[in-house]
Amino acid sequence: MYDSSYTRRVAIAMALYGIGFEHRAWSVGRDFDRIREYNPLGRAPTLVLDDGEVLTESAMMLDYLDDLVGPDRALMPATGRDRRDAQRLIALATGAIDKAILIALERIFRPVEQHSQAWLTRCRVQVEGALGELEKACVARGEAPWLVGDAMTHADIAVACYTTHLREAIPLDLAPWPALRAHVDRCEALEVFRRHYSPFSAPTPQATPA
Questions:
Q1: Interval 102-113: pLDDT, tens
Q2: 3 state SS for the chain
Q3: pLDDT (tens digit per residue) in 51-104
Q4: Are residues 88 and 182 in the same domain?
Q5: Taking CA atoms, which of 34, 117, 157, 174 is between 20 and 30 Å from 207?
């Protein structure tokens, strides 16, 4: 489903590349077994190519898509400082959403009395540390519309999708990071982002067979 930021970033890239696809809005909670028919991990996104090959990691999917459209159209800078900067920002945003998901899952799948406050605090510190670095990157860009170079890259897509996801899933007020919030809001206002979006829907824990 498009409440998965991993799924969104792939769908947005495919739309920007003009690559048509069929989207099955399956929940990793409700439709876990259906997803596992294609991906043994039962994770989203899962991309089934026309020839039946299955890709099971969003970064791998984007690498495949970039290779498919070629370096002149790819949303990742080909080399040099711009490429490293884009990769750094994607890594920060990925780290933040990974920790945010752990916070959300602790709340969803474990009763309150079993929550580890030490663990939740550690994850929150990591999320906020990453957001602080992304804030610095947004401030450094000033009035530039994009995070790297003169055009949208995978860094813009990842930062927007992941930040929206964690803002809704934890949930988290972005007021302490105004430049980041402004950048995310600008991206989310674009039609391609609006079209590939749904509000966060917490997975429903499924009973495990005895």
A1: 998 888 778 788
A2: CCCCHHHHHHHHHHHHHCCCCCCCCCCCCCCHHHHHCCCCCCCCCCEECCCCCEECCHHHHHHHHHHHHCCCCCCCCCCHHHHHHHHHHHHHHHHHHHHHHHHHHHHHHCCHHHCCHHHHHHHHHHHHHHHHHHHHHHHHHCCCCCCCCCCCCHHHHHHHHHHHHHHHHCCCCCCCCHHHHHHHHHHHCCHHHHHCCCCCCCCCCCCCCC
A3: 999 999 999 999 999 999 999 999 999 999 999 999 999 999 999 999 999 998
A4: yes
A5: 117
